[in-house]
Amino acid sequence: MSFRRGIRGDDFRKALETLAQQDGWWKDVLTDPTLIIGIRDEYLNVYWQGQSIFKVSFKGGKVTASTHEKYLLNPDLKDQVSLVEGKFAFGNAEPRMLTRDYEGAATLAKLKRAASLYSGQEKEGVHEIATSNLSVVDVEVAINASGVPGIKRNLPRMDLANFETTATGVDLVFWEAKTFSNPELENGDIVGQIADYQKVIDLHKTEFDDSYRCVAKNLAEMAEWSNGLRNVAAAISAVAKGAKINVSSANVGLLVYDFTAVQRDRKDKDGKTLNDRVIESLAKVGVGPERIRFKGTTKGLTI
Description:
alpha+beta; 5-stranded mixed beta sheet; 4-stranded antiparallel beta sheet; 10 helices; 11 strands; about 35% helix
């Protein structure tokens, strides 16, 4: 069981920098700040609303990219296809059913539309938060916890990681994201989730520090390659230049969104709102109100 993030190989980084200067898919990704570049262990995931539309690796001295076949289905198809004697008569539709060539930003936009079909409210919300908070350094933070005593999930997955500037350096903060209607907020499962996260953080403090120091450098480099279209927060720049990272299991929080004022204010028989009940339950694992954010929409939700 280990945790590792970062593009550490000089050849891979130099190849990405060179590719960024050429017209093509990588330059289009870099210049589209609505896409999230997830730095993994010597590879990248390019995310749109929780869906990885590109996996980027370095093989045989070259940058390689792949995508899931489902994202190549043309999302603009509208016509009916006749079923004739047990066979679908595709006719002129067949050549249009798949995205076969990468033809610039229009193709990237088509991949995003196709990926949107597989997303959902929580993933869309996480994407909105990540792209509007420049301090976010990672999404989909999965850790193999198989065999670790006391952890209920073999692969705990935290939704977001971000940097917060403090008087003693930069705090690494992990966030779980839920829509208001998620039953885990009511049935107590959220307490177990947060407790699992806290345990794996304690086990991997050194690895988190090393990984996100490298990730900060990678993100800062990519911002430079984007011709000003990607930016990173001052905290990320500071870590890239050597600022101290504070890694603590105390720095785990919860984001809850997608609700109306009526839902927010609804009280149970004890006169408590869902916000009240969540604050009470998470106090059992040491999460205070300052790390619990309820907001009706993810627009403007800051972390």
